[in-house]
Amino acid sequence: MTPANTFTIPVGPLHVALEEPMYFRIDVQGETVNSVEINAGHVHRGVEYLTTKRSIYQDVVLTERICSLCSNSHPETFVMAIEEIAEIEPPDRSRYLRVIAAEVKRIASHLFNVGILAHLTGYETLFMHVMQVREIVQDIKEAVFGNRMDLGAMCIGGVRYDLDDEITAFLNASLDKLAPEIDTLIKTYRTNGSILRRTKGVGVLSHDEAIACGVVGPVARASGIDYDVRVKAPYAAYDRLTVPVPTLTGGDVWSRAMIRLEEARIAIQLIRDCLRDLPGGLTHIHDRPDIPAGRAVTKCEAPRGELIYYVKTNGAPEPERVKWRVPSFMNWDSLRFMFHGAKIADIAIIVNSIDPCVSCTER
Amino acid sequence: MRLPQDIEARLRAAAPHGVEFSSAVTPLGVTTAWCGLADTDDLLPVAQAMLATGARLSMISASLLPTPPEEEEEEEEPEGEEGAAEKAPKPVPMTFGGTPIDGTSYEIDYHFDLEGDTLTVIAYVPHGGGVVSLTPIFRTADWAEREMMENYAIAIREHPDPRRLFIDPAIDSAVLERLIPFSTLVNAASTKSLWDKVMAGKGGAS
């Protein structure tokens, strides 16, 4: 009797490295993955439809609630589109404050992902250490924005927060605390045997595959694609800042983690540069104009990569159509390549390495 | 390489039925271009022209093309024959390519990215029509087209894997048009009490 040597195993929809549901049907031969089917739709909420039933000003609040870790990027890109349609120029000071909000979120998001990676390798001490370091960023969010998750920082025509001397001093002191911690984490992830054994050469996405899948963000940059919206299509104050774009060619789980850690380090520098150059003046325009008919496509570099918004208005208070594509929507597809030939035990680590966002994907 | 200088000429060469082209550059140097197609038959050659420039298909947006708002009638109706003439049915407005804008046609926007610049190719599809799938040349179109198929009655021809993406196969297609979603039933309403409270306390965020 010949035993069957291929199996189909269901993974998910609950608790595949994340709190969010996504279902994978994985065909395996022995312990090796042959192919994968991804089944989405468990948290589809129809937010795109809802945006057309709210006023454009209310949608700033609604879009912030599409996702948690990249919550700031959604209203940021949405208000950029509205500003383009209505020809609103946000004040200079708000451009820098937008960068600060975005980079604070980026650090928190990246640290969360590399922390979960440590958890999935079974290195709980490191996981807790990363989360403790991340707590510095959470405290920054709470102190500067009043919230630990949704910042509520963006509005049409500027930002809804400001920095005074006291809070700037706190921010600077927090960054001084954070920077050496991140340097230590980079060293740990670069040299620790437990991390390296589970991540090096695992879940490889080649340069060509990355281009075919159209992946974005750290997933693309870890496969050698030098693309960062902050540099390619500058917005806010990024045209006046030096934004280094780290890339690696390994395309494996480790490369993606290292890109994220490096970007967290760069984000600290960007915030410091903004605090140094922060111009005075208004933080937002002081009227609330009617938004004329028009259309715009805008994009920004969310923690997971390019976030793109298409907004069409017709002069009514509600937008006619709002469509967005989150970075994860592109990155899921790359799992088909990353899983090929992978071991069952590495599935969760590989899924986590694209830093997937399910509520973003399904809207 | 960003959008090439001769992009409009390239698109016109690829689309013999004609295009409606416009572009603008932001103060920070990012180009946003729009290219409406007169005929959806030109979609594939135009997509191939974009592929040749090295562009990435970044997003696809589908939407129902709403009827333009009716002009308000004058309150005092003119008398006699003039009044009768006023009531003659108005011609249905058309897109420049001849797709009726009567509330049943679709607009499909293909957003291409080339090193930060964006070019949006717009295809207008009349009710019951469809477009050819771009998935064979742009892998990134796969999910976007499947999502479009299940939300709207747009036929995507030659899609290599036309299964459901988000919505269960047991539910008919064009679910956003045929069924009455709960959010339509309640007109996507929610209470405004929090919003009112915020606005009352703040005097506005603008």
Radius of gyration of chain B: 22 Å
Number of helices of chain A: 15
Low-confidence stretches of chain B: none
Topology order of chain B in helix (H) and strand (E) letters: HEEHEHEEEHEHHH
Report the portion of residues of chain B in β strands.
15-25%
- Strand elements of chain B, count: 7
Strand order of the largest sheet of chain A: 1-2-3
Name the assembly state: heterodimer
Class inferred from helices and paired strands of chain B: alpha/beta
Q: What Rg of chain A do the Cα atoms give?
A: 21 Å
Shape of chain A: globular
N→C terminal distance of chain A: 49 Å
SSE pattern of chain A: EEEHHHHHEEHHHHHHEEEHHHH
Shape of chain B: globular
Termini separation of chain B comes to: 38 Å
Task: Describe this protein with a few key phrases.
heterodimer, A: 363 residues, alpha+beta, three-stranded antiparallel sheet, 15 helices, B: 206 residues, alpha/beta, five-stranded mixed sheet, two-stranded parallel ribbon, 7 helices, 7 strands, 27% helix, globular
How would you describe the overall organization of this protein?
The complex is a heterodimer of chains A (363) and B (206). With 363 residues, chain A is α+β, with helices and mostly antiparallel strands. Helices cover 48% and strands 13% of the residues of chain A. Chain A contains 15 helices and eight strands. In chain A, α4 runs antiparallel to α11 and α6 runs antiparallel to α11. The model of chain A has no long low-confidence stretch (mean pLDDT 87). Chain B is an alpha/beta fold and 206 residues long. Chain B has a five-stranded mixed beta sheet with strand order 1-2-5-4-3. Chain B has a two-stranded parallel ribbon with strand order 6-7. Chain B is globular, with a radius of gyration of 22 Å.
